[in-house]
């Protein structure tokens, strides 16, 4: 009995096309030609799409930072201070307040303050440490040491701000630049590091000013403390003298102890 196939040529052409479109995958029992696996193909296409999307996102992040305005700050330029000098009483003070010069600060401070006369040496030689006069002298000496140092700190701060104006302005311009010139991730990280370094320098300079303020407060507190201690000592001394020496008026039997001039 013979089986005749209708249109045998059509079957041969269809089989040949099927063989040509096969992808690497073995048939049953490891024998036969390569067949197409649609599940594996769909998975590969999905992975490729995800990778392409991640690449585009990473490329965009590297080239463009759209939120750079949050870094914008205003550099406050300090103007040079100009101290009035009508009769030479503040010679060198303007220079001292605007430059980092300890010698200029010391010279200007000595010019602007009343010196302690050398004639007081004999007077102080008879005073004990802790006396009101010695305490006053100690306060003057502390002030003469701290005040020029504070003037130098102010001058150094002003000079540093002036010198760093160009660098700060350049850093700000680069941080806010929206082009691809300075927008790579590495460049932006370098800019952030530079900004942190400038911030550290600013904090150190302000730390010197804060130390100066603390020193000045110590001198002021010393003056007030000495004045209060002198008042207490005077009151105790007057009370003691009145109790020893009868200064009562005529026909009075005792001293008015509660009155202090």
Describe the structure.
- The protein is mostly helical and about 260 residues long.
- It has helices spanning about 10-20, 40-65, 95-100, 100-110, 120-125, 130-165, 165-175, 185-245.
- α7 (about 165-175) packs across α8 (about 185-245).
- The longest helix is centred in the last third of the chain and has 60 residues, at about 185-245.
- The radius of gyration is 45 Å and the shape is elongated.
- About 5% of the residues are buried.
- Residues about 15-25 have low confidence and may be disordered.
Strand content: under 5%
Distance between the termini: 151 Å
Major β-sheet annotation? none
User: What is the tally of helical segments?
Assistant: 8
Question: What level of helicity do the residues show?
Answer: 55-70%
- Structural class by SSE content: mainly alpha
From the spread of the alpha carbons, the general shape counts as: elongated
Number of beta-strand segments? 0
Low-pLDDT stretches:
16-23
Rg (CA only): 45 Å
Order of helices and strands: HHHHHHHH
What is the average per-residue confidence, as pLDDT, rounded to a whole number? 76
């Amino acid at each position: 009995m013979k089986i005749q196939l209708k249109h045998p040529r059509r079957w041969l052409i269809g089989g040949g096309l099927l063989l040509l479109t096969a992808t690497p995958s073995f048939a049953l029992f490891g024998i036969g030609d390569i067949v197409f696996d649609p599940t594996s193909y769909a998975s590969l296409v999905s992975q490729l799409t995800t990778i392409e999307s991640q690449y585009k996102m990473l490329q965009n992040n590297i080239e463009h930072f759209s939120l750079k305005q949050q870094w914008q700050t205003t550099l406050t330029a300090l103007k040079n201070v100009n101290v009035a000098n009508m009769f030479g009483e503040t010679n060198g003070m303007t220079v001292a307040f605007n430059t980092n010069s300890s010698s200029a600060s010391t010279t200007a401070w000595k010019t602007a303050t009343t010196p302690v006369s050398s004639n007081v040496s004999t007077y102080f030689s008879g005073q004990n440490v802790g006396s009101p006069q010695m305490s006053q002298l100690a306060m003057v000496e502390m002030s003469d040491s701290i005040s020029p140092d504070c003037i130098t700190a102010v001058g150094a701060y002003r000079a540093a701000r002036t010198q760093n104006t160009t660098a700060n302005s350049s850093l700000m311009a680069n941080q806010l630049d929206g082009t691809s010139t300075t927008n790579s991730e590495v460049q932006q990280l370098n800019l952030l590091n530079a900004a942190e370094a400038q911030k550290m320098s600013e904090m150190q300079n302000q730390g010197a000013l804060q130390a100066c303020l603390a020193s000045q407060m110590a001198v002021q507190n010393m003056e007030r403390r000495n004045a209060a201690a002198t008042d207490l000592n005077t009151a105790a001394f007057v009370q003691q003298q009145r109790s020893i020496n009868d200064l009562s008026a005529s026909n009075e039997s005792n001293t008015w102890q509660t009155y202090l001039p």
